[in-house]
Fold this sequence. Notes:
The chain is of the alpha+beta class. The chain is built from nine helices and five strands; from the N terminus they run αααααββαβααββα.
Amino acid sequence: MSLDEAFADVLTVAKTARAPTAAWRTLCIRQRRRLGVKASDALAELELDDDVARVRAIVRDLAMKSDHDTLVFSLYDAIDDGTAAAGFYVAPMKSGGRAADDFMHDPWARDHTYLRASVLDGVSHIAARCDLRTRWLVESVMAFAAAALVARFAAPSCRIVVAFDEPKKGIPAFAELTVQKKAEETRSASAHP
């Protein structure tokens, strides 16, 4: 399985999952051959439900402007200060119905709220104990998976894009987890005149 296939697998599971922790464990099992048994089993022990509840409360309290129609959840590099291992933030923005490939390249200032997720801390701590090849996979593929699942279940009715602040070579900079409602409505209207 290539890195592209690993990310495609993460996106498929994140978009179709019915529960965050169960989907996480499924991903850990599916990535076992790439990550090894030790890393895969350690990752599978992490829980996402508390993080989802905490992030959902923050998202609910965001003061979104009326023209904001998308939430960008962006992972930033690990902070090695002994307290915070990893994190991400949420930034509401106006996409204007454009595709993520278009609006994510806009030069815009992000009004963002920093979030903590225990699962991201856990992923970083596990990655630190892995060999270099496995560490990179854990820090990229599995960190992205954790953020994607937390974001999707914390903001189920929003258009969501999950991104890396500083993507590493060979991994996608961002991915959309939701389908635009306007696009769905247009397809539905054209299919049923």
